[in-house]
Amino acid sequence: MNLIVFSTSTAISRKFLFRWSVLITLFCSLALPVAAQPPASTARKQVYARVQQQAADAIRQEAQRNRWEDYQAKLNLFIPSEISQYAPCPEPLSVSMPGGERLDLRRLRFDVRCEAGSGWEVAVTVKPDIYLQVLMAKETLERGHVLSAADLTRRKFNITNLRSGYITRPDEVVGLTLKRRIRELQPISQSQLDTPVMVERGQRVLMIAIQDGVEARTMGVASKKGRKGEMIKVKNESSEREVSATVVDMGVVRTGFSTGQ
């Protein structure tokens, strides 16, 4: 019977379909939950977003200055609990760094201010973890060893844990001497290195002097050992006069006066 009515009466079938569509719509509206409205922004969320952006920008600028390659940064933000007492700021937050442009990557501080109305201010600390390819010793190296490219490898390391610093480019260390023993896969820092000794005590050296645009050369004997740029005493072999000279190369010193004086 239903099939006959459905096929022979257009009016009845339309009425039937309309009722079912109303019921289905009603059922769906009851079964599906109403979409939750996004909560209003809080002062804490505002501070978090603003400081996170500011810290990321500061680290990005530091990476450009130091020519970091393929670094990764994780930001750990510490926001005072008092922020929960403040209403969201209707204007963009003002952020400043008390330390200026010089960054202490172990701990960054940001002063955040809401300048609208009576306003509010909080100090936020950011402790980043920055992973970067740094130079390490392939194997344990002893004090006095002169570094070569074969001694070095590069591995990712959290540089914020390196109090003595780090080095990323081999050309900065090749040819330098170790001041102390370095363990295998220990990051290398500038404080561990020294320029090689270029003049030994008692060594015959070439003395170069320039006076009034005229260069004079003679041989002398070093009274002490010296590294590049260091000032040492050198005794002129010809005049037997001792003068001050600057080490400029292997076995070479430069004086500011005529070598014959």
UniProtKB/TrEMBL annotation:
GO cellular component: periplasmic space
Chief place where the protein resides: periplasm
Protein keywords: Cell projection, Cilium, Flagellum, Periplasm, Signal
Intracellular or extracellular location(s): Periplasm
Gene3D superfamilies noted in UniProt: 2.30.30.760, Antifreeze-like/N-acetylneuraminic acid synthase C-terminal domain
Domain of life: Bacteria
Domain SAF intervals: 132-194
Family matches, as InterPro entries: Flagellar_FlgA, FlgA_N, SAF, SAF_FlgA
GO terms under biological process: bacterial-type flagellum assembly
Entry keyword annotation includes Signal: yes
Transmembrane segments: none
Signal peptide start and end residues: 1-36
CDD domains linked: SAF_CpaB_FlgA_like
Described purpose of this protein according to its UniProt entry: Involved in the assembly process of the P-ring formation. It may associate with FlgF on the rod constituting a structure essential for the P-ring assembly or may act as a modulator protein for the P-ring assembly.
Similarity section: Belongs to the FlgA family.
Name of protein: Flagella basal body P-ring formation protein FlgA
Organism ancestry: Bacteria, Pseudomonadati, Pseudomonadota, Gammaproteobacteria, Enterobacterales
